[in-house]
Design brief:
heterodimer, A: 112 residues, mainly beta, four-stranded antiparallel beta sheet, B: 116 residues, six-stranded mixed beta sheet, 0% helix, globular
Chain lengths: 112, 116
Amino acid sequence: DVVMTQSPLSLPVTLGQSASISCRSSQSLVRSDGNTYLSWFQQRPGQSPRRLISKVSNRDSGVPDRFSGSGSGTDFTLKISRVEAADVGVYYCMQGTQWPATFGQGTKLEIK
Amino acid sequence: EVQLVESGGGLVKPGGSLRLSCAASRFILSDAWTGWVRQTPGKGLEWVGRIKAKSDGGATEIPAPVKDRFTISRDDLKNTLYLQMNSLETEDTAVYYCATTGGGLWGQGTLVTVSS
């Protein structure tokens, strides 16, 4: 299975500042169709995961443009600009290139 | 509103069985690739099965760790997804979510506790 490694695992951020989360995969996530199936999810306390970004950088409907995804191959980043209190939660990356799809361990974002 | 609603979780003894259901509203399950994800404090998020869209043949795939014990199925008339879990172990204790395999739609989850 593809191993997804996130860092940091804990991310204290000051309101209004930016935050970045790294996600590395144990092998390239480029599929034979040319697409890279790397998604980012937010899980607020007590809620189900919610997808923010698919295929590296495509924001889902209703996701603020403060959230952006980038990367290629095995190295990916989620950036959150101007962090708000509503952003508190755990963030996960997931690869869907190879079955079974696999998740990173999660990064817990908290407000300083 | 488009939604997935899971049911069937609860307390079961080791070695027992449980069937989870996932009913869809305003969403046709057979048009999508869907599956089940479980979440535990220790192992995080983990896919435990998926079923392809009807147009893609409807085949099911179960990952190796649960392959001999879990079965996924779908009733297209009832627009409902199922997860049959047999020979349950304490390590299967988790919140189980149904979701589209791309992760764009999730249910609210149902808690399964395996304990004597």
